[in-house]
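Students often ask why inverse folding is considered easier than folding. One informal answer: many sequences map to the same fold, so there is more than one right answer. In these notes we will look at a single instance of the problem. The structure comes first.
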């Protein structure tokens, strides 16, 4: 029984991952259970067994995707051995590299920005993304609320700048991926952003 439960969980995870890729590639209308099952290596019936309808599958796939992909980047924000500037630089670098290098994360951006608004009001997947970005903001704000913040800026204004950048590059990944910077440029871009907010602390 335990093995069966583990296998079911593994199948469910494969379907969620495949669903993001298929929704991003084919759009809402053409992302059929058959296409998703084929991408996941399971039958259409297996997809339907785990997810009663396509809307539910989209919601859960987006929610699971944001939780899974954000976790490594968020680790950078809570490294006690690093100062605020270096934590923020690490986070932005990891996020930019994910968008540049990870097909699944770019597909998640497409599904969130272009596909979900067609069919979801504020479904569970969309709420998950909002909750995820709220978590980012909660971790980033204390890093900016420091005497090292650029003169004339409030921590809340600096947070707005960071979050606007994150949202902007996510939308770019969904609508104009060819404009994304290469992965090797990520660290330099991140350092430049942090240097503008926390002068001299991007490496500290």
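Output (designed amino acids):
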């Amino acid at each position: 029984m335990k093995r069966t439960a583990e296998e079911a969980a593994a199948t469910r995870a494969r379907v969620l991952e495949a669903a993001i890729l298929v929704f991003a590639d084919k759009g809402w209308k053409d992302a059929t259970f058959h296409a998703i099952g084929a991408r996941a290596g399971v039958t259409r019936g297996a997809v339907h067994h785990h997810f009663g309808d396509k809307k539910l599958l989209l919601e859960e796939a987006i929610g699971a995707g944001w939780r899974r992909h954000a976790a490594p980047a968020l680790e950078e924000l809570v490294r006690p051995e690093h100062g605020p500037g270096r934590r923020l630089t690490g986070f932005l670098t990891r996020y930019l590299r994910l968008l540049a290098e990870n097909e699944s994360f770019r597909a998640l951006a497409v599904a969130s920005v272009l596909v979900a608004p067609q069919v979801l009001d504020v479904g569970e997947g969309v709420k998950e993304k909002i909750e995820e970005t709220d978590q980012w903001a909660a971790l980033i704000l204390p890093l900016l609320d420091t005497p090292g913040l650029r003169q004339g800026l409030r921590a809340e204004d600096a947070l707005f700048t960071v979050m606007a950048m994150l949202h902007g590059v996510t939308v770019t990944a969904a609508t104009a991926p060819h404009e994304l910077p290469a992965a090797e440029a990520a660290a330099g871009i991140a350092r430049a952003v942090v240097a503008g907010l926390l002068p001299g602390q991007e490496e500290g």
